[in-house]
């Protein structure tokens, strides 16, 4: 009797991957990076259009304002990148900012040491993130529902503390976190300046990049997004990692509250409404798949800058109603979601 065997479709265990497999891996990596590249091209295109249409876009002061005004959004986007990479979601970050900022301002005005007040603001974010993580990992609650509950909790606690704007004292040391540091002295008002809040955002971006791409924790985050069941079978610390990403998201929301409050000088229970959606939009525009497994921290930063620059261009135009910002954001987000679906289908086709 003759037995016919099919040739193996992949490399045998312990052997080097075939040329086809290497090419497929490279193609998959390029497809994964395509949305981020597209976001970067949109950002550059917006700069070119703004300079041609309105002028004075490619200037130091425009870059300074873009970084200073969006540093809190960049911090939020880094935290949401960790969450969305696992296929999760965090709807609580805007409300966390409200509760954290109101509590911090009231504690500062009550005579607490500024460092202690700031630590409490960050700790509030960490605790609320921990609550979300516990609900999701140990009680089996869907991330959407768990973080929605945390959102209502944080917003309610902020309203219990105060329903009117709480203003930082003029001599509060927390305001020093918004002190402008001149990097380049340009002509007239065309200076390149940053603030300690911008420095904090940059440090967080760098740390987020290193954690995701240089640590076992980061590799586990990507593995969970690819297939949580497979990650568990591989012996990866899935429960601790899922708990950790929500703690990270909450902690970064607390830091964002510190950065924003120091710049604005006040806090209110309605602060941060819709900011979680802006952060999610920045992450998706930056190339992170909502289903998880693919994305980059630097892409999320580009996404946040795209949204920030869009607001600058609308303000410069003067003829576009501010309400159009959400419509334009929705349109851009829809385009990137469709692009992600197309690329995901292409990736499955190349792997098949």
UniProtKB/TrEMBL annotation:
- Report the membrane topology from the UniProt record: Multi-pass membrane protein
Cellular localisation: Cell membrane
InterPro entries per record: ABC_transp_permease (IPR001851)
* Transmembrane portions of the chain: 33-54, 66-85, 91-108, 115-138, 192-212, 243-261, 296-314, 326-344
Q: Which is one GO molecular function term here?
A: transmembrane transporter activity
UniProt entry tagged with the keyword Hydrolase: no
The UniProt keywords, alphabetically, are: Cell membrane, Membrane, Transmembrane, Transmembrane helix
Query: What's the short name of a Pfam family annotated to this entry?
Result: BPD_transp_2
Q: Does the keyword Transcription regulation apply?
A: no
* Main localisation: membrane
> Which GO CC annotations does the UniProt entry carry?
plasma membrane
What's the protein called, per UniProt? Sugar ABC transporter permease
